[in-house]
Amino acid sequence: MIRAYRFARSLQVGIALLVLLTLSSLAGVIIPQGLDAQRYLNQWGAAAGGLLLRMGLDRLFSTRWYNLLLGLFSLNILLCTINRLRATIAALTHSRFLTTDQINSLALHAELAGKEGPEITAEKTILSLREQHLSTSLLRSAGEIRITGRRGSVREAGSALLHLSILPLLIGGLIGKMTGFSYMQQLGAGESAAVRERPFFVRCDFFELERNEEGAVKDYKSGLTLLDSAGDTIVRKVIEVNRPLVYGGIKFYQSSYRSDPRRVDDITLVVTGPLIGAIGRKVVLQPGVGGTVKGTDLVVTAGRFMPDFLFDMKTKQAQNRSHLHRNPAVFVTITRGADTLFARWVFQKFGAMHHADEAYGASFLSYDMPMSTGLLIKENPGSVLIWFGIIGMSIGVLLVFWAPRRRCWAAVRRSNGADATLLTIGCDAARDDPEAAARFNGLIRRLSTIVTD
Fold it and tell me: Could you state, in order of their start, the residue ranges of all structural domains in the chain?
């Protein structure tokens, strides 16, 4: 059991899992995710595409084997953190005493011969260490007195906090992955959609795009309403970037915007005819809504719109090929009272096609596509734990890098065959403390004055 524990928290296992996760994630970035299976077979071939699909590389980040790797790596990090945390807490709560041989192995060490007994020499050594703002501890063992002086408990506490903060990060991330969700929802004004796994809907009441004097986008916002299953309003809010709507732990972010290819607005036509004139009159219409030509009793209606018009010769019916605006067409009618004077498809790219010889005609000049809002709908139940982990880790890093840390050890014993006392003292020499040697030399000069005189 102990061997398995040591294996699970070993650095080698952690590095191996990290390499596998990195290579797998790289494959998930290179290979497009979530496409139709046939597209992978067409692009990669039957053999390679079939292998890709069997391994789940088309949906890598939701496969069991990828999540297993992620779980094993998290377990390795967790066990390493616990092991390191135990050592850090032990260093924080227990004083460490070194023997004479261990002190002599330090980079900074010295031996002084005192003229007084071990007890008095130890007291003077403790006094000198405290003058350098070190807290001291004393241990009497057979034949010698051991002393430790230290400064930097705050730094040790920062190290403990740093390692401890990894735990809420891992736990919060696991909770979020298992129970949370995050997805994009595109909505036009007046459209609504069900919120995943929740008994309510989100509706976009309006979308506004603000531009500055140069015409660049300055800001964009959406008016959202949450509705329950009966259609009653739960909450309303105008959201902007970094100002989401929050309800029931779910956040609705203003993420993006784009023109909505499914809808058109402000269709501009030019109509001609005997009552209008050869030059014609411009009319701007809403889809499905009729408008009167100025100065006449003619009514023009822009009916069905198709962004990619196609006439099927077999069925003799007009149909729309796609949402791509490759061949925009609108069905226009011109009526006068009960009489229909014109009723044809009008094409934006082909002018007066099919009706050049008719008394009345229409030209399709332009149209607008209303903007739609892109909402990021997100729930992460583990976000509170993650924030605790981030804050704790930030404080821990600050304490580790900015709080001073010093350690000194001393051993006092009687000199062999003499009444004098031998003091062995040493200090650690941290690479980030260039003044350690000068401070140690000052300590030795001080001890030489009060111990050897």
Answer: 2-89, 95-151+405-451, 166-262+373-394, 265-368
